[in-house]
Amino acid sequence: MQLLFDASIRAGNALWAMPGRRQEAIQEYDDAVRIATTIASSNGNKGDSDVIDAHLKIGDVYKDGDAKQHQQALAEYQSGLKTCEAALGGRPDDFDLLRNKGKAFYRIAELLRGDNALADSRAYYQKAFEVQNGLVSRNARKPSRRNSRRTSSLKSNLAATYTHWGLLEQGAGNLELALEKLRQGVALDEELTKNEPGNPQWQEFLTPNYLYLAQTLEGLKRPDDALTYYRKLNDARRTLAYRAPGRSKPQKDLAEAAKLLGDRSTGLAQIEAYREAVRSWNRLVEDPRNAEAAADQYDVVLGFAGTFDAKKDWPDAQSAYRVAMKIAVLNYVKDPSATSWRDRAEEAERASVVAGKAAETTADPAR
Length: 367
Fold this sequence. Notes:
Elements: H1 2-16, H2 22-42, H3 44-63, H4 70-90, H5 95-114, H6 118-140, H7 145-171, H8 175-195, H9 200-219, H10 223-243, H11 248-263, H12 267-285, H13 298-310, H14 314-334, H15 339-363
Helix pairs in contact: 1-2, 2-3, 3-4, 3-5, 4-5, 5-6, 5-7, 6-7, 7-8, 7-9, 8-9, 9-10, 10-11, 11-12, 12-13, 12-14, 13-14, 14-15
């Protein structure tokens, strides 16, 4: 029966990942609920956690659909929570049950936040925090290799609760409270990243939180503090891009983070940030597998070129104009009827030539 449950869960996971197969995934998860319930009726210690897990998965599928299905998602999450609380009545210290209780609270909070039910969502984030924080403290009192891995997972869950609670408060306009929650989440994620530098998962969880913090600080009219986190965002995006050569998304994320940093910087710092963005877009447009990711960046790169031009930074201006030209050519080749792209390519090429001549003159004062 346990093997059958595991197979149903795996089949549900596979179907959920395939376009147009969500209903079949729900059917597999429903089968998993029935199997786990049968197991739990004869051996509660074994089956109830599986019942909860299957309900949460069904809820996730409904949550992933349109807003009309959110009530069904909420019903599944509450079913999982009800099963969890009933089992905890007999085993109040059971680790797996407590962890599932925290997961259920967190999922309900996320669903309610998405539906703009802020007060109810806030209450469930508080409940998730209480359970997750208790588990982190409890696990830390029993040091072992196994508990160390488990503590990392628990801290990551707690960090997500802090961060998403912070996003709720950010959206509600409670920026000071949002800042507090986001900083607590970032502190945990930074700790995990520092303790396991070879685990890219922690860096991936941490990185977007720098942006949320920076945006919150900007809302509080603290641009200098915000700039610190834009720098951290850029550094973290660079690390992720270097770890994933050949993938378009990390390069695109790096280029966008560099632009955000450059837009808020001055002098050499701005030049260096925009230069990094240009390099990232160039890597993408020159890679046939990823060139499409840069197709809509002509105006952005041309803007960088204009900034370099205004600062009389001719070599960087020349490089940026060349990248803009490549993007225009990419779009023209894709659709030769769009002759405006040919005109833009020629315009960028001419500007590149002018910048190149200016660079030569600057390098040789005798000219």
